[in-house]
Amino acid sequence: MPFTVHKVIKEAHEDGIWSVACGRRGNKVVTGSVDDTVRVWNADSMSLMHTLEGHQLGVISVDISPNGSYAVSTSLDSQIRIWDLMSHSLVKALEAGPGGVPSSSRLGANRDNQVGSVKAWSVVFSPDGRQISTGTHDGNINCWAVETGEKDRTLETRGKFVMSLAYSPNGMLLASGAENGSIHIFDVPTGKLLHSLPGHSMAIRSMTFSPDSQLLITASDDRRINIYDVHHANCLSTLAGHQSWVLSVAFSPDTTHFASGSSDKRVKVWDINSRQCIHTFDTHTDQVWGVAYNEDGSRLVSVSDDRSIAVYNVYSV
């Protein structure tokens, strides 16, 4: 499996980049930055297609709808914005609630100093594209209807700040990771809490399901990556290799490997069967906040506080 750096876009934003999403359809990459903007890129050429403006504070999280038509972004301004990726226009702006911090107290690229009481942190589209879910500082998960912009329901973890979310690809499960290292898995149709897992000793920054919805991978400030059997609710493996906080994880659509990004400035690719690191990229010069695969898993994209986007070839053999 060859691993090469395909392209690096330096100064892709005017400040650190905190989030990235690759469209399963539509051939687009979306990034969110401390510079308050969301940017849309052509996935092949990585040329800038459009800059979406409107957030008043740094953009924390972005996602792309399963059909590739829409993007969603959350910000420290506690707004959720849904964007049309065809017309590059704002569809809806949802007020998640009071929170965030005034612009006069922004502290550069350190997200943790800017939390305040943010009511919409990480954001994900449901696999059917009908809902978006956001994690909140008070430990809840809010689920919003895309069509109406109304809040459908709130799932309570009775825990700490929800920093990461992931839907299973089959749409049946919604997992959350908290500041205290706990993991909660909900049944989507009923909203029932199925499992509470001990998880990690520190904050869970990112999580991703395997394409078959059987495994959950979590990334934590404890420098560890955990792999869980979702249905039996047990931890299969704990992987070490990063030298600092693990900030992001993404599962390849080809099911053979997954990637991680860290505060140690590195991106690692892991083999899911051997559970070993099979390649390390040292492309970035600052912490790596996001990693995402393209539709067929042949390319991996990473974003960093160094304001750059890196694209890697990760072809399977």
TrEMBL record:
- Which PROSITE patterns does the record match to this protein? WD_REPEATS_1 (PS00678), WD_REPEATS_2 (PS50082), WD_REPEATS_REGION (PS50294)
Does Repeat appear among the keywords? Answer: yes
Keyword Repeat in annotation: yes
Segments annotated as WD repeats: 10-51, 52-93, 122-154, 155-196, 197-238, 239-280, 281-317
What SMART domains does the entry give? WD40
Using the record for this protein, list the coiled-coil segments as residue ranges, or answer none: none
Read off the InterPro entries from this record.
SKI8, WD40/YVTN_repeat-like_dom_sf, WD40_PAC1, WD40_repeat_CS, WD40_repeat_dom_sf, WD40_rpt
Q: Which UniProt keywords apply?
A: Repeat, WD repeat
Q: What is this protein called?
A: Ski complex subunit Rec14
Organism equals Polyrhizophydium stewartii
